[in-house]
TrEMBL record, chain A:
Family of this protein: Belongs to the acyl-CoA dehydrogenase family.
GO biological process assignments: butyrate catabolic process; fatty acid beta-oxidation using acyl-CoA dehydrogenase
Flavoprotein found in the keyword field: yes
Lineage: Bacteria, Pseudomonadati, Pseudomonadota, Alphaproteobacteria, Hyphomicrobiales
Species this protein is from: Bradyrhizobium niftali
Protein name listed in UniProt: Acyl-CoA dehydrogenase
UniProt-listed InterPro entries: Acyl-CoA_Oxase/DH_mid-dom, Acyl-CoA_Oxase/DH_mid-dom_sf, AcylCo_DH-like_C, AcylCo_DH/oxidase_C, AcylCoA_DH/ox_N, AcylCoA_DH/ox_N_sf, AcylCoA_DH/oxidase_NM_dom_sf
Swiss-Prot/TrEMBL keywords: FAD, Flavoprotein, Oxidoreductase
Cofactor(s) the protein requires to work: FAD
Length: 369, 387
């Protein structure tokens, strides 16, 4: 039976994060954008909400909640509505933790997960992107070569969130000649291992609090069990799908913030003797923004719910992401347009939201075109 | 990009050479600083010198194209190198044609004279927009009242280009509110006037190479001679301030459209060069996208040139100017956005030019009449849509 409901638990978590977004993220967004950093005490506070450890099984010290991509999407949407950049920074550890919960071997879970269950915040990340054009995960060129004593990994990763701060990192690399995505595996790479060089990316257009970094791996030696999963390593399709869903959810939050911010302004701002909301070109724009926000959200939820049922959601996730990538920019742009010249000034969040939307949707945007 | 006369191409080539060598680097410097270059930056002295050597085409018949087409061609090339630096360029700027058309002979001499052959950079500025509204030019609240010596201005203006460094700002204010918008007149507020306060240079998304300034007029005294066209404009029929102002916007829109085309071409070239160098060109998807970008760019440029050509031919061009303005502005945005997608990751990080173009482009659909206002103007003329 079709349902658009979420469980009581999910709606509680969402409400908590909506409050957090409104009270903590929104007011700090501009300064974080300018300083290209998330304040440590804010990240600590987010940590204390237990976001990262929520779905870590109790056996490893976590909250023991069922691991749910839908819950994750609700959380990211809520945080994205406060600030996608700060939300992304606060959620970065999950980029490492969730794949471990989903795909890690028993041994790996036991070793890695308890680190994220303490009171002290632990930053972690995932290195996916590379600077090949129109990035496609099946064409990752970073290579992990099997050696007698384990693995040796070589390549350059780009736009790794919180790259400099992360204490743990997953790296996607080609581990065999198996065609396409079958040959790509995830590796647990200690960021301080010899041969790893991490430098901040400069001049990112948006999401600057995520402090993206370039990670160079110059023949880094790893133990045999550095490959995520049992034996030859886990299929990373679910990991990619949940990343897509998560990114899209963050964007949904962002565009909802734009829409919610634009509506009251359109009702108050007077031009030619009446509120601009009464002008159909503005009113229709707002109606379209509302339509798109809802459609985007449902596409994301549907993919997330299917994921949680254990279905192969690779296609659904791509569909949701492509749709979101195409429409989010438009909504952010229309939102700014409604504010006219005021939207272009850095005193208001509109221009920042447009930059964040551009950054969030640039990967795979070409594929969506 | 288009077949112009050899004589005009010589001028375009001068702008290109200067643009590549000086304008582009200066624009990037200002963007990275997040603030316009200071007025005493050597770039501006260099610009003045460049203009003295290359004043551009004039009405002496040497260049066969008319003034609007010439202006469009030069603007397009200028904006290709940096739209923000184009606006920041020293000179009387936007109000120059208004002063030339509606000013008294004394005003033309006093306010435009110093710019002629000036060896130091000087700026003029034009203040229309107010915090409470920019699109609705009838609703401006800034008031002018008569005094023994001249006028007192009270109100607030915002987003005014080059206003903090200008020798004078031509300020729109209503002298006779009972007459509605025909009571609006323009006043020269000269630099250092103590009634112009709260001067704030806004921090913008893009186009950071020029000042957009907000200020307050608080019992701002201007002498009697500073009302554009003189106290009684009836005497000179051309000088109804409002008419003069609005009349020029029809060629100004063409100028903005041309700048938008220049910016769009720059984004297109960035994407094309990247695609060639990275091998992305081999992808059919990328080639398709580039081809679509090129088509849109061509359409925008032809639309702009036609609006300019009509102006030169004295054929009414209101619809043409508006459609060129909105189409070109949206083309600039589309191409900068598509350019970022083709350049991909590199565009997101690392101060890539196309990233800056994306931020710069957004303003073009707001300034000189928003996209909505252009469509309303067109609709009014095409189907008689009421205001
Ligand atoms: C970078 C920059 C530089 C500028 N430089 C100058 C300058 O040098 N001098 C100067 O005077 N001004 C300048 N401006 C101001 C610019 O002209 C105004 O921002 C513009 O006219 C829009 O006015 P507004 O910002 O008050 O928006 P508003 O007029 O408040 O409009 C808000 C929104 O309502 C829409 N809208 C308004 N009326 C209608 C309608 N009837 N039907 C449908 N939609 C409508 C608009 O399209 C817009 O989307 C500059 C602005 C920028 C961003």
């Amino acid at each position: 039976m079709i349902s658009f409901d979420v469980t009581d638990e999910q709606s509680q978590i969402r409400d908590m994060l909506l409050t957090f977004a409104k009270e903590e993220l929104t007011p700090r967004a501009r300064q974080a954008d300018e300083t290209c950093a998330a304040p440590a005490e804010l990240l600590d506070e987010a940590w204390s909400l237990g976001l990262a450890s929520l779905a870590i099984p109790e056996a490893y010290g976590g909250g023991g909640a069922p691991r749910s991509t839908l819950t994750g999407a609700l959380m990211l949407e809520a945080m994205g509505s406060g600030c996608a950049g700060l939300g992304g920074a606060a959620a970065a550890s999950s980029l490492f933790v969730n794949p471990l919960i989903d795909l890690g071997s028993e041994e790996q879970k036991k070793r890695e997960l308890p680190k994220f269950c303490g009171n002290a915040r632990r930053a972690a990340t995932l290195a996916l992107h590379e600077d090949s054009f129109a990035f496609d995960p099946s064409r990752i060129v970073t290579r992990a070569e099997p050696r007698a004593d384990g693995w040796r990994i070589t390549g350059v990763k780009r736009l790794v969130p919180l790259g400099e701060e992360a204490g743990d990192m997953l790296v996607l690399a080609r581990a065999s000649d198996a065609p396409g995505i079958d040959g790509i595996k995830a590796f647990i790479v200690p960021p301080r291992a010899p041969g790893v060089a991490i430098t901040r990316e400069s001049g990112t257009i948006g999401l600057t609090p995520m402090r993206f970094a370039r990670v160079e791996l110059a023949g880094v030696s790893l133990p045999p069990d550095a490959i995520l999963g049992e034996g030859d390593g886990a299929d990373i399709r679910p990991l990619l799908a949940s990343l897509r869903i998560g990114g899209a959810a963050l964007a949904v939050g962002l565009v909802r913030a734009v829409t919610d911010f634009a509506i009251p302004y359109a009702r108050e701002r007077v031009a030619f003797g009446e509120p601009i909301a009464k002008k159909q070109s503005i009113a229709f724009m707002l109606a379209d923004m509302h339509i798109e926000c809802d459609v985007m959200r449902w596409l994301v939820w549907k993919a997330a719910a299917a994921f949680d049922r254990g279905a192969d959601v690779s296609k659904m996730a791509v569909l949701a992401q492509n749709y979101v990538n195409r429409r989010a920019i438009r909504i952010a742009d229309d939102g700014l347009q409604i504010f006219g010249g005021h939207g272009y000034i850095r005193d208001l969040p509109l221009e920042m939201w447009l930059r964040n939307a551009r950054m969030l949707t640039i990967h795979g945007a070409l594929a969506a075109a | 990009m288009n077949k112009f006369s050899a004589a005009l191409n010589v001028h375009i080539e001068q702008v290109r050479e200067w643009g590549q060598r000086e304008v582009r680097p200066a624009g990037l410097e200002a963007d990275r600083n997040g603030a316009p270059l200071p007025p005493d930056h050597p770039y501006f002295a260099g610009y003045v010198d460049f203009r003295r050597r290359h004043p551009g085409p004039v009405d002496d018949g040497a260049v066969p194209e008319g003034p609007a087409v010439r202006m469009a061609a030069i603007n397009e090339e200028n904006a290709y190198w940096d739209r923000g630096m184009g606006v920041a360029a020293p000179g009387p700027g936007l109000p120059a044609p208004i002063v030339a058309a509606a000013g008294t002979p004394e005003q033309r001499e006093h306010f435009l004279g110093p710019f002629r052959g000036s060896e130091i950079p000087r700026w003029g500025s034009f203040a229309l927009t107010e915090p409470s509204g920019g699109s609705d030019t009838t609703a401006f609240r800034t008031r002018a009242t008569r005094t023994d010596r001249g006028f007192l201005l009270n109100g607030a203006k915002c987003f005014i280009g080059n206003a903090a460094r200008a020798d004078w700002v031509l300020v729109q204010a209503n002298l006779d509110p009972d007459k509605g918008r025909s009571g609006q007149r323009s006043f020269f507020v000269e630099r250092g006037n103590r009634g112009m306060t709260g001067i704030k240079v806004e921090n913008k998304m893009g186009l950071r190479a020029y000042e957009s300034v907000s200020f307050i007029l608080e019992d701002c005294e201007v002498p009697r001679d500073n009302i554009l066209g003189g106290e009684r404009p009836e005497q000179t029929s051309r000088s109804s301030a409002y008419g003069a102002t609005m009349g020029t916007l029809n060629t100004t829109r063409v100028g903005v459209a041309a700048s938008a085309v220049g910016l769009a071409r720059s984004a297109y070239d960035e994407a094309l060069n990247f695609a060639k160098q990275s091998g992305a060109f081999r992808s059919i998807r990328v080639r398709d996208r580039l081809e679509a970008m090129h088509r849109q760019l061509r359409a925008a440029w032809l639309m702009t040139l036609r609006a300019a050509w009509k102006a030169d031919s004295r054929i009414p061009n209101i619809v043409d100017a508006s459609m060129a303005k909105v189409f070109a502005a949206e083309t600039a945005q589309d191409l900068a956005s598509a350019g970022m997608e083709i350049v991909g990751l590199e565009a997101g990080a690392g101060h890539h030019l196309v990233e800056k173009l994306f931020r710069d482009a957004k303003a073009l659909n707001i300034v000189e009449g928003t996209g909505q206002i252009q469509r309303i103007i067109m609709a009014r003329h095409l189907v008689g849509l009421p205001r």
